[in-house]
Each structure stands twice: as C-alpha cells, then as structure tokens.
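ARCHIVE CARD
Drawer: 12
Card no.: 0347
Subject: one protein chain, sequence and derived structure
Cross-reference: see card 0346
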Amino acid sequence: MSKKKSTSKKAAPARGKPASRPVVKKPAKAPAKKPAPKKPVKKAAKPASPAKKPAPVKKAPKTAPKKAAPAKKAAPPVKAVKTAPPPKKPTAPAKAPVAVKPAALVKPAPVKAPPPAPAPPPPAPVVPAPALAPRPAPPPRPEPVIAKKTPSAPAPGPTKTGALFYDSHMHTPLCKHAWGEPEEYAKQAIKAGLKGIIFTCHCPMPGGFWPTVRMAESEFDTYVALVQRAAAAYKGKLHVCLGLESEYFPGYEDYLRELHARADFDYILGGVHWQAGEYRNKFESGTIENFRRIYFDHLAKSAETGLYDCLAHPDLVKNYHPDSWCFAIVKNTAATALDRIAATGVAMELNTSGLNKSYHEMNPGEEMLRMMAERKIPVVIGSDAHKPERVGEHFVNALIQLTNAGYEHVSYFQKRQRIDLKITDVLTSLKKATDHNA
C-alpha cells in the first residue's frame, strides 16, 4: 500500500511537468489503470451529462424538437410544430413534458369545431317560429274561402215587395269624402228595389296612412254604431249590414287581420288604391305600364292573403293616366293575376261607380269581365255610393253586362259566406220591387 502511494506521488510531479509525458506513462501502467477506467467511465458519464446540459440550454430551442425523446413521438410534436406557438416560448425545453404542450395543442385542435358558430343561427330561427305561430292561429281567415266555394247558407227568398238583391258597397261621412247619414242610404235602397245594403266604409290604418280618405282608428266603434243605428231604424223594411272596405298595402296584413276580428262583419271588401301617396311613393317607378303591372300583381296578392271576401273595382288603375289606358298592353299581366285570384276562390266586384270616374267605364271593363267569367270567378255588384242617391245606381246595366260576359249568377255576402242568385231572378226582382215602390 505504501509503494502504491509513493508511485502515485511520483506520478503527480510527473504530471506537473509536461502533459504529454503522463499520457505516455499511463498506458505503461495498465494494471493500475484498470480501476481508473472504471472511474473515468463514471466520471466521463457525469461530465458528459453536464456537457450535454449546457449545450441544450443554448441549443435546446433549435434541437429540442429534433433530438428530444419526442423525436420518436414525432406525430404529436408535428402537430405542435404546425401551431408554431411552442418555439416562441424558450421555456418549452425546460418543461421536458413537451408532450403535455402538444396535448394542450391537440385540445385547441377541436376548436376547429365551428359547429358552435352555427349554433347561434339556430336560435335566430327559433325566434321567428313563435312569431309565425300566432299568424296561422286565426283560422277564420281560410274558412271564408271554403265557404265561398261551397256556401252553406241558402239564398233567402224575396220580400213581399219582390226585393231580392243587395248593394254591397257604400260609405259613410266618416271616410271624409262621403255625404249623407246611413239612414238616407237605406231609404234610397228601398226606392232602388233592393232587399238590403252593406256599408263598407274605408278602414282605419296605422301610422297615418292616407288619413284624408278614411275613418280614424278612434272612430272605428263609432262606425259600427252608425250602421247598427240604421239597421235598427229599418228593421223589417231593409236589411242593413256591416262591412268594411279594407285597404291592401304590403306589410299591413297583421294589422288588418286583427282589425277584421274587432266586429261581426258580414262582408270584407279588399281595396288596392293606387291613388294613395304612400302607394305611389313606393311603387310608382319606370313606365306607366310598369306601374299598372305592379297594381295587378298586388290585386292578386290581396286575394292570396285570405283576408278578403271580394276585391273592389279590380281595374281601378285605368284611371291612372286614363288617356293612355289600353287594356291590350296589360292583358297578359291581368290574365296572370286573374288565374291567381281564381285559385283562391275570392270574388271580384263589378263596380258601377266607374261610370262616374275619369275613365268612363265600369270597373272592370267588358273584356276583363269576360276573362273573369271564363275563370268562373264569382261577381258581386257594388255602387260604391258616396252619396245616398247613388245607391243601386246602374244595377240593371251591370246585370246585363254580366250576362253578356257569360255569367249566369251574381253574388252577395252574409256573415262572410257567399250567396249566389240567378241573374234573371235578380233582374225580375228589381223591376217588381221598383214598380211596387213607385
């Protein structure tokens, strides 16, 4: 043991001299170095590891994705590389469980679930769904359409005077452009040989829509009371009924539906009035013919709403620039509108007041009336009286025009159900009643 120590001491100075000599002497003492290699192996492993530690500390961000054990787990890191956020974080190598980071990255991958983005749209349709539910809720609208096709109420017989027919269109002073009390209109109806009359004053509209030609919303109950007063005054002499000329303007359907439910109407007459400032401001564009085509389209749409029993003065638009009116130009448009109207079962009016307007002709004219007859569209006659003396005016001529156009029946409404009468019977009743009252 002492010898060995001495040798070690000698070796130490030898080392202190030149570095190359101890290298030569070491291989010579092979037996003594056998234990030494075991120690350097251990020590070499230790310095190796620290050598590797400082190296990755500096080069880790570059080599970490390549040399790190995740190299075998290349599949998950590759996804992490695609996201590129880890390289920016220098602490990533320190946290050897880089696998955890890709795992976290794998979780955002499901963020691809844009399905949550479409999730908001579903609630949007859910909102209108309840809004649409109340619209179909009022079934009384479609019911009248069925009644028109198959009226259940039988046509009552004539009165003792022979009166059989009704004038289904007239106004009251509440519309601001009519004169005379309802009782005066009733008195004239008896002279004209009629069994009954239906008041159809212009309905109220919201938002101040064309207010100069209609009752105000606050006057609706007053209107109903006026008609009831006349009905009571002429009970047993003339049947006085409650109706309404209800404006059609796109977008007001819900308001009108509620309005029609406010009273027990016998008759709802739909009217498209091109004269309204609101109507012209919105639809008067392009040529005169284009404006007339829009009118006929709205006429058909009004029937398709199911809000009305009959459509008033169907070709009223001919009074828009009457000097240029030529039915042949819009005939195809009118034919398409009539096809649509015929499919609804809604009736149309032959309005005798057209003879008092700028285009001196009933509404509609004879050619359009024939087209209506070909499609078997029911017809109701109305005088559109704004003065008592015009109740029942030109009815005999109107009935003759209907016969010439191909009609055999004419209609009126009670409790929103259509009643058809033979034109020949109506003509006979008018003559008999007027003779009786003369």
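Annotation on reverse: The longest strand covers residues 239-247. DSSP finds 20 helices and nine strands in the chain.
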